[in-house]
Amino acid sequence: MSNSQIRPFHLAFPVTSITKTINWYVQVLGCTIGRKSENWVDFNFFGHQISAHKVENKIKSSTTNPVDGHNIPSRHFGIILKMNQWDQLCDKLTNLNIHFIIEPNTRFKGEKGEQATFFIQDPSGNVLEFKTFKNDNMIFEHQ
Predict the structure, then answer these.
(1) Predicted confidence band at 142 (pLDDT cuts at 50, 70, 90)?
(2) Number of structural domains the chain divides into
(3) How far apart are alpha carbons 116 and 113 in whole angstroms?
(4) What is the rounded CA–CA span in Å between residue 136 and residue 115?
(5) Which one of 46, 98, 122, 139 has the lowest number of neighbouring Cβ atoms within 10 Å?
């Protein structure tokens, strides 16, 4: 499917507090709010719809897998940004003193699929990855 045909995706994920979730996704990531109730809220996440659903139980941390020298959380979601957007978000998060689970770094340097990436966590423990590729044509290329 070409980029011009891509439709917005939808992702639902658990959270322990709707109020903290709204504050974090709006203030930290710059998302806007769509529909909401006391038990869920939709966000515009870089043009995609993500829905936070309140759960009573603490969210369990996920296991990790080794990737290019880092322990990558196996359950995470995120977005592939243009390089300037990625740089701006890195700067914003650094200025807000947001803790990086995995600091901004370059993976697969000099190889197909070279990408800059970092991981952060929302207030409920959901892990988000933000990445940018040296060349967007390499997003689905094999090593």
Answers:
(1) low
(2) 1
(3) 10
(4) 9
(5) 139
